[in-house]
Amino acid sequence: MTGSGSAAPSRALDNQDISHFVDTSDEWIASRTGIRQRRLAQPDQSLKTIAAAAARNALEMAGITPLDVDLIILATSTPDDLFGTASQIQAELGATKAVAFDLTAACSGFVFGMVTAAQFIHTGAYQTVLLIGADLLSRWVDWSDRRTCVLFGDGAGAIVMQANPDINHLLGFELRSDGTQNSCLTLAYQPQPRELTAETIVGQGNFQPIQMNGQEVYRFAVKKVPEVIEKALFRAELSVAQVDWLVLHQANQRILDAVADRLGIPAVKVISNMARYGNTSAASIPIALDEVVREGRIKPGDVIAASGFGAGLTWGATIFRWGK
Length: 324
Ligand code: ACO
What we know:
Largest sheet: 5 strands, mixed
Distance between the termini: 6 Å
Bound molecules: acetyl coenzyme *A
Number of helices: 10
Radius of gyration: 19 Å
CATH superfamily of the largest domain: Thiolase/Chalcone synthase
Strand order of the largest sheet: 1-7-6-4-5
Number of strands: 17
Number of domains: 2
CATH class of the largest domain: Alpha Beta
């Protein structure tokens, strides 16, 4: 784990601003979620440009150039193009020797991406991987639904993972999914019948805005996230006490507090920045990680437990050591 970077749109929308167009208040949002503002991409900003900015920062910290990258994985649920956006980022960066693809696992995307990247490194197929988590959920939120629109924001984070022949820094992981609970959280395509011939009807429609059963998702996260972290720690042959930092998907401060409490991890080890960004989906873990790395709080050799959870439903945890 040799570099990190992040980027977010400069336009900020605070809770007070939201109370001007839906029936809510700063007090309700802050006390139920811990969120105070979120960054929102303007119409002329794309996932590609924000993700590329985060990627450049990560490459710079790693001390490498785009030409050194073998593989780019973009974890996102909100691509600029449904055929994929990773290759556009590859072109934007000038990473001409890399192969690039998108990976979709909602708010678990960054953790799923880290495990995927590590497999390519462990087989020896690739030496240097650029892993990006980026989402612009503002494009897909129903801005008239106060139960969801207060939660989400836009941003991107990235890390560079490089082969080290002597040490494996991904110490343990556990990935899970449960499609039977898919309806708890969706950004679903809704087809409309369109008749081409008397016998042939295709379904052409649009994606519908985010729908969420907040209480179900809350219960799921608080129960499943500690389990998956414990399993990943078991695989890493480490105890909870050996974790230096807990970096959870930044969905809700109450979820962070409850998970840390269940695991017995003290609040000083729990990284939280959702007050300033809201829930940025696949971007939330790498943005939080990057901020703390740049503050100098995370040091080389520190053990980090990261866990993502969300739509799918998907959830997972990685235990890794920061640094070369
Ligand atoms: N402002 C004011 N009132 C509100 C708001 C709001 N923004 N939103 C909901 N309310 C009201 C509801 O209408 C309801 O009122 P009623 O009782 O008169 O019907 C009341 O507040 C309570 O609503 P609940 O949904 O029970 O509120 P809850 O305490 O569960 O908090 C929340 C809602 C914050 C969404 C919580 O359930 C949560 O955080 N869930 C997890 C969500 C999550 O993390 N999702 C992201 C997963 S990541 C991904 O993959 C995208």
